[in-house]
């Protein structure tokens, strides 16, 4: 589960109380039950750590199946990418904490590799989808959004470019509202929202779309 | 394994000789061994059906894990999308055949659903990557490429649009060679190739890239 907060991308990890890899930090998860599919399973496992209604997006990431990835019995993991908006701070248990991705603690098994894969998937999707909706609050200033994109991408993004690209792609809408002006005065910053809160490819091969979709 | 041939997208299936679902058509695959990861496993399984060197692209598709998807012992499948170029016709065993996706025979288990998911992944990637390289011959005319894209996308694509978009994205290069002119005379058609034979996102969030990559 990833969240862009205070200009930094964080991952939710819990500290293992038992062997193997006691005291190391793990991604939330657990065994698949006989009566559930992997999507049901991950939502059940996550519900033990957080209120899953706080999750703005969940998708299958990849299977991790190195024979020796976990000591003992063969364990194949289906990893998911989950996102939480920047302004949501779900209650979490005492053994669980958000860690910055560029300062991870000692992690269990291949969970650092899985975390990096999740980050890379998020970065790729920021380039060709509207997935920013899942990291941002429901309404935000361009300056807030710039900070979130910069945190997720790992480099500074210009506010004017970001606004222009997302607007051109039809992903961003002005709400018509503004924040109160700051103590120094000046123009009060405008509030924006994403056009839709579901993942879509924002820049498809537009001219190749079937004629009916070209409206 | 998918291939765009004669203007139609095909999938490679084999006919089951034994129960369960005897005589129905299956995607190639099989059990994960203790000493291999899923990527090694799928290449081993495919090698039983075709010369895997003919595959131009392989990627993880998704996990299919409905508890009742296969009768008997619980079976979770990691599905892969494999692509074969239009001009490659690998030798296949007698129990195996290419089937058009819009006229599938009686399929085993959830393999029709997996096939549709593979088709949808391919279609999505045609919109934001250079994945056409994996469906096309090494060199091709725009008219041949148009036929391949139309087959994969499921609707007619205009040759001029296709050439313009792929060229603008830097995915397509003229080879400088032409085919011999047809019997009716006229300008001999130019031969093109893809710029690179590895998957890349061809239309990333360009203005958001780190400065060093903007060359």
UniProtKB/TrEMBL annotation, chains A, B:
It comes from the Bacteria. Gene3D superfamilies: Nucleoside Triphosphate Pyrophosphohydrolase (3.90.79.10), Winged helix-like DNA-binding domain superfamily/Winged helix DNA-binding domain (1.10.10.10). PROSITE patterns: NUDIX (PS51462). Residues 1-122 form the Nudix hydrolase domain. PANTHER family: ADP-RIBOSE PYROPHOSPHATASE, SLR1690 PROTEIN. This is NUDIX domain-containing protein. It comes from Saccharopolyspora gregorii.
């Amino acid at each position: 589960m990833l969240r862009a907060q205070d200009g930094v991308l964080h991952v939710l990890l819990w500290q293992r109380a038992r062997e193997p890899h006691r005291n190391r930090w793990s991604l939330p998860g657990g065994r698949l039950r006989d009566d559930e599919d992997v999507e049901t399973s991950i939502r059940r496992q996550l519900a033990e750590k957080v209120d899953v209604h706080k999750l703005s997006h969940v998708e299958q990431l990849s299977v991790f199946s190195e024979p020796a990835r976990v000591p003992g019995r063969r364990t194949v993991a289906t990893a998911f990418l989950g996102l939480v908006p920047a302004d949501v701070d779900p209650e979490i248990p005492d053994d669980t904490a958000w860690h910055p991705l560029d300062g991870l603690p000692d992690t269990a098994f291949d969970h650092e590799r899985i975390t990096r894969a999740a980050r890379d998937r998020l970065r790729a999707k920021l380039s060709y989808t509207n997935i920013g909706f899942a990291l941002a609050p429901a309404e935000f200033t361009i300056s807030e959004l710039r900070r979130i994109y910069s945190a997720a991408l790992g480099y500074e993004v210009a506010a004017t470019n970001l606004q222009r690209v997302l607007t051109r792609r039809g992903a961003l809408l002005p709400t018509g509202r503004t924040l109160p002006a700051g103590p120094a005065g000046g123009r009060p910053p405008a509030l924006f929202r994403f056009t839709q809160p579901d993942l879509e490819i924002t820049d498809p091969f537009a001219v190749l779309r079937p004629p009916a979709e070209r409206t």
